[in-house]
Amino acid sequence: MTPEIRFFPVGNGDMTLIRLASGRTILIDCNIREPGDGVRDVVADLLPLLKKDAKGCPYVDVMVLSHPDLDHCRGLINYFHLGALADYDDKAEVKKIVIREMWSSPIVYRRASKYHTLSEDAKAWNKEAKRRVNRFKEKKAAEDGDRILILGEDIDEKTKGADALLIKEGATINQVCGAIEPNFSALLLAPLTSSDENEEEELTKNESSIIINYTLGAGSKPDAVKFLSTGDAEVAIWERQWARHKNNKKALQYNLLQTPHHCSWHSLSEDSWSELRRKAKVSPDARQALGQALPGAQIVASSNPIKDDDNDPPCIRAKEEYVAIAEAAKGTFWNTSAYLSESNPEPLIFEITEGGLRQVKPRSTSGSNAGAGLGSTPLAHG
Amino acid sequence: MDALPTAVEDALRAMHAHPAVLKARVLSVEKDGRVIVEADFDTNLPSTWRAEGRSPSGVLPRETVQFAFPSSYPARAPYPTLRPDFNTALPHINPHRTGDRIPPCLVYGTLLDVLHADGFARIVDQTAVWLSSAAMGCLIDLERGWEPCRRTSYGGRFEVDVHSLVNQRPDAGGLALFSAFAGWVLNRSYVTALGRGTKVEALPLQAPALHGMWKSVKTDEDIETGRIFVAVCWPKGPSKGQPVIGKFQPDTVGTLGELLVRAEELHCGEALSELLNIGLMMKGQGISRLPPVLVLLPIARPVNLLGLQTNIEMLAYVIDIERNGKTTNIKLDTPVSAISLITPISENLLRHTSGLPVEGAKLQLTLLGCGSFGSKIAMHATRAGYRPDLLVDSAYSSAHHVARHTFLPSDTGKIESKVEGMRRIIDSFSLGRPAIHAGDIMNLPRTLFDEHFKGESRLIVNTTASPAVRDYLTGCKFDARVMEVCGFEQGKCAIATVEGANRSPTTSDLMAYAYEQMRRMQAMPRPMQERERLLSIGVGCNSVTLPMSDARVSLITAGAGQLLLNAMANGLPAAGRASIATVDTDGMSIKWETSELGETLVVLPTHSAPDWTVRLLEPVHSEITRDFESHPHVETGGIIVGRVSTTSREVTITGLLPAPSDSIRRRTLFVLGTKGREESIRAYEESAHGVLWCLGTWHSHLQPAGPSHTDLQTADNLAGISSSVRVLLIRRPDGYSAVVREPSRTTQYRD
Prior knowledge:
The complex is a heterodimer.
Chain A: E1 4-7, E2 16-19, E3 25-28, E4 30-31, H1 42-46, E5 51-52, E6 58-64, H2 70-73, H3 76-79, E7 80-81, E8 97-104, H4 106-115, H5 120-139, E9 147-151, E10 166-167, E11 172-173, E12 175-176, E13 179-180, E14 184-190, H6 197-205, E15 211-218, E16 221-229, H7 235-245, E17 254-258, H8 273-276, H9 284-290, E18 293-301, H10 316-328, E19 332-335, E20 348-353, E21 356-359
Parallel strand pairs in A: 3-6, 6-8, 7-8, 8-9, 9-10, 16-17, 17-18, 18-19
Antiparallel strand pairs in A: 1-2, 1-20, 2-3, 5-6, 11-14, 12-13, 14-15, 15-16, 20-21
Chain B: H1 6-17, E1 21-29, E2 35-42, H2 47-52, E3 62-69, E4 79-81, H3 111-118, H4 120-136, E5 157-159, H5 162-167, E6 174-185, E7 191-192, E8 201-202, H6 207-215, E9 218-220, E10 223-234, H7 256-265, H8 269-284, E11 293-300, E12 312-319, E13 336-342, H9 347-353, E14 364-368, H10 372-383, E15 390-392, H11 418-427, E16 435-437, H12 446-453, E17 458-462, H13 467-475, E18 481-488, E19 493-498, H14 507-520, H15 527-532, E20 535-536, E21 544-545, H16 550-570, E22 576-583, E23 590-597, E24 601-603, E25 613-616, H17 618-630, E26 637-645, E27 650-658, E28 664-665, E29 670-671, H18 677-688, E30 693-700, H19 709-716, E31 726-732, E32 735-741
Parallel strand pairs in B: 5-13, 10-11, 14-15, 14-17, 15-16, 17-18, 25-27, 30-31
Antiparallel strand pairs in B: 1-2, 2-3, 3-4, 6-7, 6-8, 6-10, 9-10, 11-12, 12-13, 18-19, 19-22, 20-21, 22-23, 24-25, 26-27, 26-30, 28-29, 31-32
Helix pairs in contact in B: 3-4, 7-8, 10-16
């Protein structure tokens, strides 16, 4: 199977599916809104892409929750099975999606819950994560549906007894759902741990998120595509990323960047866009951290349509910065809400090839292209 | 610029509408009416290659394609070409001359058909797909096999088994010279339509043999036929050391000089030079005229060729050394034509073409009857690469056979049996000669019987429609299973049956069951009417046949052929099967309905006339068992129907009629009622047209006991419901008992 990355159009929110060459799937966040009136039925898009287990239950091999804002976990309770697999309702009209392995970050949760009231979906994720951790502590092993990796070491000892589940910042994940995955690695760049209370406070205020730089291989090229997945991480976090990696920029280099926080200005600057508009200044270090574009890099803003107004996110000034980065790399900038059509955007799909990311364009069909005379005649034989 | 033809304007519109086309414009309108249009395509390069400016295969992010629309467009297809420096080391590039624009091979089949099937937009779309695939280096999938070098469809062709030539490679490589029969067109430099069924033979390099070559040539207007040279120019050295060439290269050879260059590149130059020296030597020996020479350059590829079991690709060219004058020097500008190699007839080719697995047949095939049905079924099998091993038919070929048999008029009018005629036809497929027996199956020589009837991997297909043959096959001890195919009512319906494992149910069981099915379908033929419909086809020759078209026969034999091919490819299932075909009143719609039958139960009667056997078909046994099990505390029963063979003394029970409603069921007694009984039996027998009839009764015993005194009395009294051989069948918990009574011996057999 040709590996691919698919960005679903979910407005200001994230929902990204990686399908690996092995067929395994990694879903990063979800923002499943009620379909209709310009809102795409992304569940209908997602389900046919998922494999089914022996009982016919659709599943993702991994789901990563970058951070617990609602626009990253909306729909979790309604569309995903939470709890032990033994309790799966296989008689339900719409079968829920099983998450075979969760990638979750308690530290991100702790920071998020300090200033935000967590949504029911976010709480449900956390509850499920805790169930899985406790089960692992009890059984010392995990099966599909109970698996979890903890991303980022927390300051207290919440992860004690589950060291085998812990992925520390700077470590690389090579396994998916308990199995070594060829042509795949995931470098964990954040959440970062803080050195003191002040830094902790700053990281907390900067939308601490899981940041992963995925390396996806194709054919004979094990590093054909590097995909920097950024959650909602804001400027202070990117400045620290630059400080940490400026002498080894490989960690931040990418062929594909999902712009942090839906093309937010706050990922690039301390200044308020709505107050300062064009006088707002870019943080050079954050710009560097987010500017490590490899030749031909594709930059994707998973956000509402980007307009020249006071809104942030998405912010037109941030878009300009990303467009400049993309153009310098002879690449392209994309906005998920404007892909092919603003009124009915399509999922943006890239195949992973030896030559980098290859856009998968919808093929002309007789229906869509009748005006061009692209009909079809059944093949007869004599 | 003159106004464009409307069709070209439409094509331009289709280009503009395609998402991959960035720009399209008319480049020129030529004097001959051709319109040259250029279109820039986005080749959808992946991001990194796009930034680098080209793919590793040399495709640019934006490629310009030129479409030349002929003045007769859309009656003729447009001709697409790419820039002259486009990378030609890719598959799916058509032959062209060096320096020309590069013609991509966009579709299987012809662009003209695609144009008329789906419109010009499909050609645009296909161009976009081709360019994108070229960029990705995936115009072919090497895992499926090596795509051989393209040849034009109008070029010459030569039929040869490449594997055979590969197997005859000299140990040290170099030139391997053969001769073969061929035909070629005068005044044209390529050889066409060559040597079907003619073996390529090794040619000794001795003057008499070479002298004999040209003497074989015959001329008929502008066509010459005769033996030609086939020269395989292997690289020098052993086959293991032959360089593997994984680079695609379209064919641009048009002259002998270019062929020499190409041969050098492919390490075949030395052998080609040797060949040319032989040509000169022959000139020196006074041979005035040389036949054309077929030159094959064998290239070792990294993987096997598509559809072949060898990695050797033979690039084929034909040169006519003599055609351009009678000099002793061979001119470098002598024209050379690239030609296609065609795989000759073989089992693999036939099975592959038929969409069947190429692996060996699961069964060996014997065909009884080479008539309308048999000869067609034999051809279905042969054409699919399953040659019959034995043909049996006692008749001689006759003129009327051309109406429906596989025979052509040239196959008749000979003193030849049908099996000899069929063998000749089958033999022409080069699959080997089947054995034949021009006689009755009952007189089949023992050696043929032992070879073709013994062993479970053998299949006998009986198309004789003869009850005597069927009875013989049923009664004869052998392991092969029997398939029977026959038609009724001039092809309005037909039956195809296959015996089950261990020959149970037998071909006779299945025919009886098929009758029962036809009765249920109200398709039972009226046996007496067949004779009325016979046609006399001669005077005093005592030969008759049924009036029925070849098309009607084919309607049935096509289905039967499918059944046979499936058995040959996949083997036979354990269950027997009976399929009934009915042709609709429109004369063209045919419907097959198939039933599967388990093993037939054989009951040996007691208290009966000697040598009788009762055969209980599995569906009837199942029905009796269901009734028996639903009455666990009382005896139950009903009426049995079927057929009797007085020659083999067999009763075959094919069905049941329900017990009348006034029947009495008690713990130790079952009394068959009379209410509606006669009407029920009459209705059944009327629907069965005398093919099936009421045989007697059945009832159950709750204990494992055979017929009681009362039962024997009942058997004697069965004459009331059956005037023929009568049967009383008893279902016991542990099996069956039966009593058989013959009309004249009703009371004679009492133990």
